[in-house]
Amino acid sequence: MSKVAIIQQAPYVLDKTRSIKKAAEIINSVAAQGAKLIIFPEAFIPGYPAWIWRLKPGGDWGTSEELHSRLLKNAVNLSSDDLKPMLNAAKKSNVTVVCGINERDNLNSQSTIFNAVITINGQGQVINNHRKLMPTNPERMVWGFGDGHGLNVIDTPVGKIGSLICWENYMPLARYSLYAQGIEIYIAPTYDSGEAWVGTMQHIAREGKCWVLSCGVALERKDLPKDFPNLDELYPADEQWINPGDSLIVSPSGEIISGPLSKEKGNIIIDIDVELSTSSKRALDVAGHYARPDVFKLQVDKSRQTSIDFKNNNQ
User: Fold this and answer.
1) H-helix or E-strand containing 161?
2) Structural domain boundaries of the chain?
3) Alpha carbon of residue 292 to chain centroid
4) In sequence order, what are the residues at sequence separation of 6 or more whose Cβ sits closer than 8 angstroms to the Cβ of residue 310?
5) Residues forming the active site
6) Which class would CATH give 2-282?
7) DSSP code string of 210-246
8) What angle do CA 133, 136, 145 make, to 5 degrees?
9) Is the pTM of this model over 0.90?
10) pLDDT per residue over 61-85, tens digit each?
């Protein structure tokens, strides 16, 4: 049995330093309760840009510029010491942490933001960085397109884990790339919620015969900074919940074991039997004995994409 923790908490929106400090404190707290795998929501640092779903496409230019500028300044640069408090907390407690971040590209123009999910090991090292392949609808005004570089299943002390972000989980080939690497604990940080999303998580668990841990964004109006531009226009004072969370844990049989945790802040901390992910494949193993490689084959490019390749032609 392995104890896992889903963190359904709000960050300090648009404040990278305080959000990272809060994440480190949460890691220390739930690790003290025995959790060995700790999962944070999509874009937790410094918060999911929920405003994109309310701004007028092509309009609200001033507000969009101000918010994007603040998000860029508070996005995580993985080549810096931004995450040091979280890395130290993971190392101190020897736990594995999966966390959604807004990542500021440290190569190329250094001004693009990616929706990324990182994996931190018990030695306090970032061992995987997956960038969301396909930002959805207005998300494309905020985030760049990711690539296959982070489509990896990582062998950790709690089991083999991998992640897809929000609507990437609707991409059958992306899911299959994880199934084919022997995933046991499938992690889905997300802004989505509701019955359709919950049903999708159950389907993935049945399809991949793996544990599915969905960590949703729980965001209230009071979580936004007081100097948020056009706050009353975008989020009227009588509106409490911006997004409900709906985090849950599903077994390899598709049974909901815990959750969905809706319209409340909290953590789901439970023990799961990771071995079920292996034994459940006796009847159905979509990337193993149930596959037909003579008919279907998937090719995945895991190279990190870049717009430029410098070559030194000096003799």
Assistant:
1) strand 159-163
2) 2-282
3) 31
4) none
5) 42
6) alpha beta
7) SEEEEEE-EEEGGGS-TT-TTHHHHS-TT--EEEEEE
8) 30
9) yes
10) 888 899 999 999 999 999 999 999 9
